[in-house]
Amino acid sequence: MTTPVLRLESVRKSFGEQVVLRDIDLAVPTHSVTALIGASGSGKSTLMRCANLLETLDDGAIFLDEEDITDPRADEDSVRRRIGVVFQAYNLFPHMTVLDNITLAPRRVHGLGRAEAEAKALELLDRLGLAAKATEYPDRLSGGQQQRVAIVRALATGPRLLLLDEITAALDPELVGEVLAVVRDLKEQGMTMVLSTHEMSFAREVADQVCFLDAGVVLEQGPPEQVFGDPQQERTRQFLSRIV
Ligand code: ADP
Ligand code: MG
């Protein structure tokens, strides 16, 4: 078996008295897409925040290319460069143009020169059909365009892994498709991704493995045909019948 890009080993996380992740084990193979599904509050965002070192674990470990990134000696900047993140709400900096939003991290964190960072950004924008928006400010873009720019920004440091946390949840329904199309393209290009979504038909289509989280436990995990088509747990069946 090849080395997973991301691996969680007995990950535990609590907030005060509340245990939010209980002994989570998860391996994300290279070039694969993992969809996290589950009710609000089941721990999807916390899992991704732990992987991006925005939260510290109570127990367990997380490995990126088999390097223990939860080791206190791990270099957080290096980890964040290798993991691109996009959240639900467009989190572009409103006072910066699209191009400046995208080139900020490559220039600050990677130490890339402006010309090189901009050339790379324009190439990515072009690939997503957004080259004409490079000098616009975020509020001049539709929600779908903003979210696509946020994806470009996450890609700009050349990450090994993308974490996409409900990236279509705040969009008007008619704008969801263009964002999901980008995810589909990235999968075709072999990008390794972990995403959380309430779009079950999309998860079914794009995911190689689906993880159903329930109160901080991976209750069911497997290929989409199995989790959606033949769920083994009553709670999974309940969740799916409510949502689809
Ligand atoms: P999901 O993304 O699946 O909706 P979250 O990971 O956001 O779930 O939340 C899991 C649980 O952890 C929820 O009960 C939430 O209220 C709690 N939680 C998340 N972040 C914090 C925090 N910073 N402080 C306290 N509780 C939190
Ligand atoms: Mg969430």
From TrEMBL:
Q: How does it sit in the membrane?
A: Peripheral membrane protein
Which SUPFAM superfamilies does this chain map to? P-loop containing nucleoside triphosphate hydrolases
The molecular function GO annotations come to: ABC-type amino acid transporter activity; ATP binding; ATP hydrolysis activity
Give the source's domain of life in one word: Bacteria
Give the transmembrane ranges. Answer: none
Any single GO CC term annotated in Swiss-Prot or TrEMBL for this entry: plasma membrane
Q: Does the keyword DNA repair apply?
A: no
- Domain ABC transporter as annotated: residue spans: 6-240
Q: Is the Nucleotide-binding keyword given for this protein? A: yes
User: Which UniProt key words apply to this protein?
Assistant: Amino-acid transport, ATP-binding, Cell membrane, Membrane, Nucleotide-binding, Transport
* Pfam families xrefs: ABC_tran (PF00005)
Compartments in which it is found = Cell membrane
Q: Which family does it belong to?
A: Belongs to the ABC transporter superfamily.
Its name, as the record gives it, is Amino acid ABC transporter ATP-binding protein (PAAT family)
